[in-house]
Design brief:
This protein is α+β, with helices and mostly antiparallel strands and 444 residues long. It has twelve helices and 18 strands. The two termini are 21 Å apart.
């Protein structure tokens, strides 16, 4: 019987080798922009050990030495729709980052925001043969998790143990060597549509890069925009992107739920374009400079000049009040937040010890969004910016770069995944994850 985790373990090995060589690229393929960072790792003779179980658990110091940001082409709802256009944009961003870094990079870790993510909570339990928990026991308890039938055309993107329990003691990060009689585990599995993932992998391959890992954007945004206490006590990260809005929930420093709403900042821009009868480029500019979601009495007296090239003087040299602009923006933003509220309620977010919500992503910069979000979501809401990363230029430190900064942090301190553990092949569950991420075999 073949190892169903061979592909993921191969990718992990490639990533580890790239980190030890000292240079790797991270890539964010979004609807609005494609961003690439080149990371240089320091003191990589060996990965430093940290709390965790899998062989990849660890951390390393790094700095950003190259940045490339290009306008996204051929991407909608966070998914690639025009392969050639997206491939050219990816290649352009990669080349710009490598030129700034003055080095050649062969391996890249990518993230995606679309592909309709779906979360599953799994659990496993075993009786210990010996009182002390061994490596074999860890593998056996993971193999006991019953994997749901997540359907054809879907693949597993993340499979992370989020909690170990030994007898009546729960919340254990590493139960190895501890004494007990019954070992149990809780695991979070995130599946996505296979086709968008395969398209992204193909674009990376055709850009002369080798894929060393994939991750969900909402997960990465939560890593970079939340503080440690929020991830520990329970919080949700809402990543308002261009084509979709990502949702991730963290508890005890692990992601326990992820989802996405297929509406984002681009839809707000299109509403402005249609409502004011202007181009999308001009609508994006007006949204950035004058947008908002909470109107005041002053907004009726503040007018925004319109320009156009239709040949109609009255149409091309008109103006609209900021109150009218807010009247276009607010309904669409409220629609996004109401859909987010429905997803959070379905996920049981209200049952967590803390109800903090962190807004990030390019769309979170609309003035007044935190106040509107508080009224619709009914929770404590704050605006989140990604953590500061050594070497990252000021232009790439805004909320729109939360996911790619999170990818840097994840590369330096990777989370354990199911395939990192030594699970005996004969112990795999009947409905194993054999299909998990088999899309990558098309590109090797």
């Amino acid at each position: 019987m073949n190892d169903p985790y061979e592909v993921q373990r191969t990718m992990r090995s490639i990533r580890k080798a790239a980190l030890q060589r000292g240079v790797i690229a991270v890539l964010d393929v979004g609807t609005s922009k494609i961003a690439c960072l080149v990371l240089k790792f320091e003191m990589m003779d060996h990965l430093k050990e940290a709390e965790g179980i899998g062989p990849m658990a660890g951390y390393a110091g790094f700095r950003v030495i190259g940045v490339g940001v290009k306008r996204s082409l051929g991407v909608n709802y966070g998914e690639i729709e025009a392969m050639r256009e997206t491939e050219n944009a990816i290649r352009s961003a990669l080349q710009a980052a490598q030129k700034m870094a003055n080095t050649r990079v062969d391996y890249v870790i990518a993230c995606l925001s679309g592909a309709k993510p779906r979360s599953y909570g799994l659990a496993g339990k075993i009786e210990l043969k010996d009182q002390a928990v061994s490596e074999e026991d860890i593998g056996n308890v993971l193999s006991c998790c019953e994997v749901p039938d997540y359907g054809e055309g879907r693949e597993v993107l993340h499979a992370q143990p989020v909690n170990f329990a030994l007898d009546n003691r729960t919340g254990l990060l590493d139960p190895r060597g501890q004494i007990g009689q019954e070992l149990s585990v809780d695991m979070h599995v995130l599946t996505v549509d296979a086709t968008p993932v395969r398209n992204l992998a193909q674009c990376v391959k055709r850009s002369d890069m080798e894929l060393a890992g994939l991750a969900n954007s909402a997960y990465l945004s939560g890593i970079s925009a939340m503080v440690e206490d929020e991830k520990e006590l329970g919080a949700a990260c809402i990543d308002l992107g261009g084509g979709s809005t990502g949702i991730s929930i963290f508890l005890r420093k692990h992601m326990i739920y992820a989802d996405s709403v297929r509406i984002g900042g681009k839809h707000v821009t299109r509403d402005i374009s249609m409502g004011l009868q202007i181009s999308e480029d001009q609508a994006e500019r007006i949204k950035t400079l004058y947008g908002g979601v909470v109107a005041t009495s002053i907004d009726d007296r503040e007018f925004i000049p319109m320009t156009g090239e239709t040949g109609d003087w009255d149409h091309d040299r008109r103006s609209v009040s900021r109150a009218d602009l807010i009247g276009i923006i607010r309904p669409r933003v409220a629609e996004i937040l109401e859909e987010v509220a429905a997803r959070l309620e379905a996920a049981g977010f209200n049952c967590l010890p803390s109800h903090q919500i962190v807004l990030t992503g390019g769309g979170s910069q609309i003035p007044g969004l935190d106040r509107l979000a508080s009224s619709i979501l009914g929770q404590n809401v704050r605006l989140g910016r990604p953590l500061r990363v050594h070497g990252l230029p000021q232009s790439a430190t805004g909320p729109g770069f939360a996911s790619i900064v999170g990818m840097c942090l994840s590369a330096a301190h990777p989370q354990d995944e199911w395939w990192d553990f030594g699970i005996p092949i004969e112990s795999y569950p009947k409905r194993s994850l054999k299909r998990a991420l088999n899309w990558i075999t098309y590109n090797w």
